[in-house]
């Protein structure tokens, strides 16, 4: 495959940034999107140019490090797929592909496609710890949990914190991320002691970071690689309102 890439290049947070066009040839359809960028970077290095900076780690859709807007869609147009698991066979030969970083004020660009997502870390830190006894593992099924609650908690816990929900939201909201982190504990017995204080602290930290408010457009769930449902946000709102009284 031969491709034309229009990539956002930005030397640093204070740089204005611009789109730069590159031509990549002989791309295997079996390559992942990041492997294709690796090939381009090798070419740029050989030509004495600065390689494109982008986040990556596990390349297995687990860590949440990779993230870029591909043709206007966070992680690309493949549903429930991270950028690292997106393969070039989903693109046409001679396609023009636009690649940009996450666009949100709380995610400042570090360089090129790399953004600073430490705002997510601070939201999680605001939630604090859970009060559970330390020591040996409890007996199986010693604390009954309804299957519906267990399933919903597991679904929320699959959030990898990639930030696609923020990048896709027209308001730059982090409600889906924050709701997932609040919900997976609020549905389990271990999360009950600090349930109210956790919900209040994490939502207030989310607002303090400068993320926008949720208006239920649903763009976040559409691009979420783990398919976290929109009703997770409703659970968070109920917990926050209850904790605020």
TrEMBL record:
Q: Which domain of life is it from?
A: Bacteria
Against Gene3D superfamilies, the record matches this protein to: 3.10.20.30, Alpha-helical ferredoxin (1.10.1060.10)
Q: Which UniProt keywords apply?
A: 2Fe-2S, 3Fe-4S, 4Fe-4S, Iron, Iron-sulfur, Metal-binding, Oxidoreductase, Tricarboxylic acid cycle
- Does the keyword Iron-sulfur belong to this entry? yes
- 4Fe-4S ferredoxin-type domain sequence ranges: 150-179
Q: Would the keyword ATP-binding be found if you checked this record's keyword annotation? A: no
Task: Kindly give the SUPFAM superfamilies that the UniProt entry links to this protein.
Answer: 2Fe-2S ferredoxin-like (SSF54292), alpha-helical ferredoxin (SSF46548)
Q: What cofactors does this protein use?
A: [3Fe-4S] cluster; [4Fe-4S] cluster; [2Fe-2S] cluster
EC top class, as a word: oxidoreductase
Q: What is its EC number?
A: 1.3.5.1
Cross-referenced NCBIfam families, in alphabetical order? Answer: dhsB, PRK07570.1
Entry similarity comment: Belongs to the succinate dehydrogenase/fumarate reductase iron-sulfur protein family.
Name of protein: succinate dehydrogenase
Top-down, what is the taxonomic lineage of the species of origin? Bacteria, Bacillati, Actinomycetota, Actinomycetes, Streptosporangiales
């Amino acid at each position: 495959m031969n491709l034309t890439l229009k990539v956002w290049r930005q030397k640093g947070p204070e740089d204005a940034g611009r789109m730069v066009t590159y031509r990549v040839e002989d791309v295997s359809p079996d390559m992942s999107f990041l492997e294709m960028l690796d090939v381009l970077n090798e070419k740029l290095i050989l030509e004495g140019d600065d390689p494109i900076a982008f986040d990556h780690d596990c390349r297995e859709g687990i860590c949440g490090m990779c993230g870029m807007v591909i043709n206007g869609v966070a992680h690309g147009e493949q549903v429930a797929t991270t950028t690292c698991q997106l393969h070039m066979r989903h693109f046409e030969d001679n396609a023009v592909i636009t690649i940009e970083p996450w666009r949100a004020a709380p995610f400042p660009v570090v360089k090129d496609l790399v953004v600073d997502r430490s705002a997510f870390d601070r939201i999680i830190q605001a939630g604090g710890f859970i009060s559970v006894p330390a020591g040996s593992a409890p007996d199986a099924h010693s604390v009954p949990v309804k299957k519906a609650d267990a399933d919903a908690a597991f679904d929320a816990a699959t959030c990898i914190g990639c930030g696609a929900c923020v990048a896709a939201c027209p308001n730059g909201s982090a409600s889906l991320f924050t709701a997932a982190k609040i919900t997976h504990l609020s549905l389990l017995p271990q999360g009950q002691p600090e349930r109210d204080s956790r919900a209040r602290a994490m939502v207030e930290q989310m607002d303090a970071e400068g993320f926008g408010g949720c208006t239920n457009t649903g763009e976040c769930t559409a691009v979420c690689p783990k398919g976290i449902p929109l009703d997770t946000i409703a659970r968070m709102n109920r917990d926050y309102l209850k904790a605020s009284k």
